[in-house]
Design goal:
- 2 copies of one chain form a homodimer.
- Chain A has 139 residues and is mostly helical.
- Chain A has 5 helices and 2 strands, in the order H-H-H-H-E-E-H.
- A two-stranded antiparallel sheet of chain A has the order 1-2.
- In chain A, strand 1 and strand 2 form a beta hairpin.
- The relative contact order of chain A is 0.12.
- Chains A and B meet through helix 1, helix 2, strand 2 and helix 5 of A and helix 1, helix 2, strand 2 and helix 5 of B.
- Chain A binds a DNA duplex (30 and 30 nucleotides) through helix 3 and helix 4.
Chain lengths: 139, 139
DNA sequence: CGGTAGCGTTTCGAATACCGAAACACAAGG
DNA sequence: CCTTGTGTTTCGGTATTCGAAACGCTACCG
């Protein structure tokens, strides 16, 4: 049986504190979760249509995710209509864009420094940075 | 033995496409990964100090994450100095803020609609939203 | 009727990730 | 020496997550 969907305030993967960001990353970090939301951006889709768009996604995971995302209020469905995003789920898309941009930059850096093992080319290796005094702290 | 750290371009958890965002979520969605980065925002920390700040994190996972984050170029260490963020890792903090803000809003909504099971109070249930025609597509 | 095709959904064995505690190595100090 | 404090690895057990196959249902069609 699949366990309960991550909720802010309760213990989640990544930390027992239940900080909202942790809960979000727990939810979204699960396999295919984000991909499902992504596919739904284009419009409502049925379960099998979703599965078709997400190559290799198995249906058990699909339904686990659908249930979790529904409990989280990111998707919903009317009666037996196809699944669709809620306004909350749609807002998530915008919130992910900076992370997406960062990830692209990250990807560029990793791939430009010739891929082989890990050790970046001499002179271009990751430099430490002066710590910017983060404002909030995790609790 | 721990497997290789997720890299953009290679298959990762969440999708076989290796889209940068997916790889990022794979990496960051792993238990304690983000927490470690978060703790390092305050300044360099040694392994045991990190473990102390992250209650209940077991050392085996800690070192798995440290290795992964290092391979990903988000953290580094000079010789046997404490671990610290790279500029790339520090930039991630900023990229996460919108997501953090979204997560707080999400948290507020979930907790305000009296927690019980899932069905939100009548009249406040998640409404579907007109699909905003997302620009990019997954691939 | 049968059959077969599409959909939503569940079951189940196997792989993986995670945990907690113990141990190893190594350096410094008393 | 012996203790104390680091950084790190190993190991057995447990929980989570996966993928493939199966199940049930509603058409639709010959």
């Amino acid at each position: 049986m699949a366990s309960a969907a991550p909720r802010p305030g309760a213990a989640v993967r990544g930390s027992a504190t239940g900080r909202p960001l942790m809960a979000a990353l727990d939810l979204l970090g699960r396999r295919w979760a984000l991909r499902i939301l992504w596919e739904l951006r284009h419009g409502p889709l049925g379960a099998r249509a979703l599965q078709a768009r997400c190559d290799r996604m198995s249906s058990s995971v699909l339904y686990d995710r659908l249930r979790e995302l529904t409990e989280a209020g990111l998707i919903c469905r009317d009666d037996n209509e196809p699944y669709q995003l809620t306004d909350l789920g749609a807002g998530l898309g915008a919130a992910l864009e900076p992370l997406d941009a960062w990830a692209r930059n990250w990807s560029d850096r990793l791939t430009s420094e010739h891929s082989p093992k890990r050790r970046p080319a001499p002179g271009s290796r990751p430099r430490p940075v002066a710590v910017p005094r983060g404002p909030g702290e995790p609790r």
